[in-house]
Every structure is written in C-alpha cells, then in structure tokens.
Specification:
The complex is a heterodimer of chains A (about 325) and B (about 375).
Chain A: H1 7-17, H2 19-52, H3 68-78, H4 89-105, H5 124-145, H6 149-180, H7 185-190, H8 197-200, H9 202-215, H10 227-230, H11 240-265, H12 276-295, H13 303-331
Chain B: H1 12-15, E1 16-21, E2 33-39, E3 42-49, H2 57-61, H3 71-76, H4 81-96, H5 102-130, H6 134-155, E4 164-165, E5 168-169, H7 175-200, H8 203-209, H9 217-222, H10 228-231, H11 239-242, H12 263-286, E6 306-314, E7 317-325, E8 333-337, H13 339-345, H14 347-350, H15 356-366, H16 370-374
Antiparallel strand pairs in B: 1-2, 2-3, 4-5, 6-7, 7-8
The chains are: A mainly alpha (about 325), B alpha+beta (about 375).
Amino acid sequence: MNITQLPYLKDIYAFLGSDVTAGIVGLLIIAAIVPLNVAFLVLVERKVAGHIQLRPGPMEVGPHGILQTLIDAVKLLGKEMVTPQSTDKLIFFLAPIIVVAPAFVGFVPIPFSPMMQIKDVNVGILLIFAFSSISVISILMAGWSSNNKYSLIGAVRSVAQNVAYEIPLLLATMSILIMTNTFKMGEIVQAQSSVWFIFYQPIAAIIFFIATTAETNRAPFDLVEAESELVSGFHTEYTGMRFSLFFLAEYTNMVIAAAMFTVLFLGGWHGPLFPGMIWFLIKTYFLIFVVMWARWTYPRIRFDQLMNFAWKVLIPFSLVNLLITAIVLKVL
Amino acid sequence: MLNPKTIDDTSIDQRVYTLNLGPQHPSTHGVMHLLVTLDGEVVLKVEPVIGYSHRGHEKMAENRTYEQFLPNPARMDYLSGMIFNHGYCMAVEKLCGIEVPRRAEYIRVITSELNRIASHFIGAMDYAMGLGAITPFLWGWDDREHILDLLEGITGSRLTYSYGRFGGVRNDITKEFYDGTRRFIDRLRGRFWDYENLINQNIIFIKRSKDVGVITKDVALDYGVTGPTLRGSGVNYDVRKMEPYSAYPEFNFDIPTREEGDCLARYQVRMAEMEQSLNIIEQALDHLPPGPIRAKVPRLVTPPKGDCYCAFESARGAVGFYIASDGSRIPYRIKVRAPSFSNLFVLTEICPGHFLADVIAIFGSIDVTVPEIDR
C-alpha cells in the first residue's frame, strides 16, 4: 500500500506545505539563528579588531575564545535590569523590545538560496525598508525615556541621520528596481544569473553600501553611540538583557544590510561550484567583514559632515544615477 | 566652525542646556570635568572644573627632606615622570651647586627622551581615539610598551620613576638597555610609515582635524601655552633650545613647528618631535662618555639659604620648579609651574562655536594630564 494514499497524511502534507506553517517554522528558525549569529558576529568583530590592533582578541573561554560571547550572553542574562528613577518607565521598557522585532522580520523575504526563503513577498524590498525604519523610533524612544542628555543627543542624531540616509538608500535601490521591474527579492536575484548588477550599477552599489553603513549606525557613521563623545549614546542607561537587545538589533541589522547588498548587487546565490546557500553566506559575511574592517580603520566623522555628505554628495549622485539609468533603459 | 548664537535670541533659554563632560567620561583623560554650555550641538561656553585629583604635592614637600620628595614629581605628570624626576634633581642640584658627571647627564637625557616619546604616543594616539579611531591608539600602545620595558629594565618601575638622584642617577645603564634602545630606534623609524598611512593620509582624520580649534599665536602667548601646543601655533619655543640644560646643548636636533595652530598641527608637531627625540637618543648613545654616574653627594643634602628656579621641557610644555630653602634639610616651599594648567584654560577661548565632537578633539589635541594640573 502506497503511503501517500493514507487520507490523514495528505492533510498533514497540505498543512506542512501551507504558507502559515512555513511562516511559523521560518520565524522559529530565525528566532533560533539570529541570536546565535549575533554571538558569532560579536566574536568575529572582536577577533577582527584584535588582529587589526596587533593583539589576539578574546582567548580565554574555549579554544581561541570561541565561547566568549556565549559566556558574555549568560552573564548579561544574569544581570539586574536597572531602571533609573527619573526614566519614563513604560517607554524605557518598550524601546529594547521594539528595536528587536523589525530586525527579525527583515529576514522573512531574504532569499538565501532558491529554496531557502521563508516567503517571497511581493513587496519584499519595501517590507525591509519599512521595518528597518521602525528601529529609528525605538532609538528615539530609548534616548528620550532615559532622561539623560547623552542619550537624548544620541537619539536626536539618530533620527536626523536615518532620515538623511534613507533617501540615497532608496534612490540607489530604485535604479535596480527599474531595471528588474519587481520588488520580489527572488526575482531580482534570478535577473542576475549572467551578470551581477554591481557591474551595471557601480555608483548605486557604492551609495547603497555607504548608506546602509550609516543606516545601521556602524563606524565611521556611529555618531548615535559615539563612545568618545556620548559615553554610549542612546543606550547609556540600559543594562543587562535590555542592553544586549540593542546589541542584538545592531548586528542583525548589519546582517540584513549585507544580505540586501548581496541580493541587489552581488547576484545573491549565484556562483560556481558551491551550492547557492554557501555563496550567499560567503558574500554576506565578506561584506560584514568589510564593514568591520572600516570600523577599526577610520575615525568617526562629525555630525555636520555626516549630514553634508548625505545631502550634498550622496543624494545628488544617486538622483543623477537614477536619471541616467532611466534614460538608458528607455533608449534601449 | 559656526558663529555662536547671539544671546538676545528670545528662544535661547529653551534651547540652551549644560552638559557635564566628566568627571566620569571616556575621553577626559582621568578625572577632568568640563562644564559645557550647548545650543543643540554647538558649544557656547566651556568651563574646565579642576581639583578632582588634588593630592597636595607642594604641601607634602614642606614636610619631608629633599630626598623623601624624590618620588613625588613623577606622580604629578605620570606620563612624563622621568622628565619631572630629572627636572626636580636639576633644581636641587642648582640650589646646592652640585656638579653632575657627564655620563649621568647623558643617561638622564636618554631616559627623558624615551619617556617623551612614550608620552607623545599617548598624546597623539589618544587624540586619534577621541576622534573615534581606536586602532592607532593600540598601535601606539604597542610601541610605547617597548619603551616601558626598556625603562623598567634599568629603573625597576614602568610609569612613576624615581631614577634620578642628586648628582647623578641610581643605576648605570645595562648592555640590554643599550642594545634594546638601538633596536627600538630602528623599529620606531620603520613604524612611522605605518602611522603616516593609517592616520595622516586618512581623509576623515584630516577633515576632523584641519581648521578645528585654531589657537592663534597671540592667544597662545596670552594664555601662557607651552609645549607642542605652542609650537603648533607657530612659536618656536622650547626650553631645551632656549635655556639649554643638562646635556642638550651637545646634541643636534630641531624644534618642529607648524603655523596653522589647529588640531592637525599639534598632532603633527608631536609626531615630528618623536623623530627628533629618536635623533637625540641616537646621538647620546653614540657618544656616551665613560666615567662615574653619580657625583659625591652627602646622604642628606642641605642646601644653603636661598632660592632657585629651574625650568625644563616636559612632554606637555615648560615646567618650572621653584624651590625656596631656609637652610634646613626640609624645603621651605616648592612651587611647580605646570604646563597643563595653562594649556587647559585656552579651551575657554577656542571652543565656543565648535561642535560637541570638536571639544573632545580639541581637548585631546592639547593633551593635558589632570594630576599635573591639580598636583
């Protein structure tokens, strides 16, 4: 007797194949992978920093310190979550929760390989942009509710910075979108099966990379938590697990930004020899390494220079680039 | 640089706020407190608040013999302790009229210049860290570590030295120190290229440093600014050349100056001075005279009644020791002229109109040590 003829198994297959199940399973996988990935990235960051700075980095816990971040996470879990007296308690409590949620949702439309995608959403690109904008609100909430001047300055900087850099980011993405005529990330990757878009759109790629570095508040654009000026910016007053949620969100956003760059410009899963998933991860982690490399090489730029750079350099260039792309596409 | 908003603006009361930078802050070099008045991110006023690490060194001097005060000067400016120690010994020798053997003078110069390089590493690299570049700081720390190891080998301590004695130094230099210093000179000359590439060619570093915190020649002279901060403003003044002391007249070295007076100029002066210090050390090692390392001096010195002022150049500027003696074994009064004090208060003049981030940069570029200000 053929096993597929069993009536209840059909129902189970149908249930397992449904969008709802795939969504739930996918989110569970994300929930498991994201913190582990962050633990790995924190270790990588410390090792990269260490070797750039002529020192070995963490070496104590496990061979070459590979268990260091896990131990740190356990320590942070055990720490008391201090809520200072003068804070706005509710907002102070909500901010770290809200900062993490969009970071998790950002993984939904990312195609790691032709099969490894939770859902190829129609508006995948827009979904990521929309959710990543929420993190600005939570940073503002954290900075405002902390009732600390350093936190407030950091939060205000964050809003100005994110508004400024979202425009060139979207304009650079637009020049890809008018080439592919789709918001679906899977289809954008398929369109690059022969030539990666970075060769068609080098300027857009550079603008996109700079703007995402600024959007994820990484050095040299880490004015939001500039430790030499603002102690640690918007999360100065946060302790224990709440602090680590901000940390989690920062690194997860970095992964999403690198994954988006891979999808838009580096041909996603395309590559010889290895399976698609491997290629996708190689490209993504290489980009993350570049971001870390920049962080440990460059000083921080000043706030007015940051804004001038966005409004006077990146936005005009991305507009011109978009215009040229549109004209070329129309003519061809 | 922006113009500070005029005070007659009606909304100014709602916009202006004060921010306490310190005494606990990542980039205030110890317990320094800057009371900053801000309009948004633009600085209107900066008031340095000092005294957090006042330990009463000058008062201590009035209660102990000259020898017992020997460890104290190195604890005033802990980053150039050897130079302070050297200076204090010079002051007492001047008061007592003690002749120091030439070998001892050479050893003092070598150790002082090594200490100056170590101090400039912290000054220049801490400035880079104030701008957010952490890597140069650790690179500088790595090079500085070699100096500390060398000095530890002959003095026994790594930071607060009391190597000098009245009439000479405590120990003769060893073969390891001699060879190690030679190796260090070669190593550091090769490393300047790395710093050039990592920092001086870095566009963000230049953008953050150029035309920021300009101290004009007049302002610098009015405030009594000395050291690399003064030489960055185009004044060619260095006590080692102007009022030569110890064995400095016997060496051939330049005093690097820059005309611009901005943070970049001060940084460049420090880096150039390190190279000059290497030249001095090399010449001193080449012509190290034989002979005793210490003059015959009684166990407890008893200077005659009188006073003396002895100036010398620390890594931060001109230091003066004024010693008044009443003829006993205990100083009547010791007054120290600390360069960081004068250098610090120039902040009140140059910071208004800059951004908050620039205050950190300017503060880092003038390179003060707090215990020296407070004493």
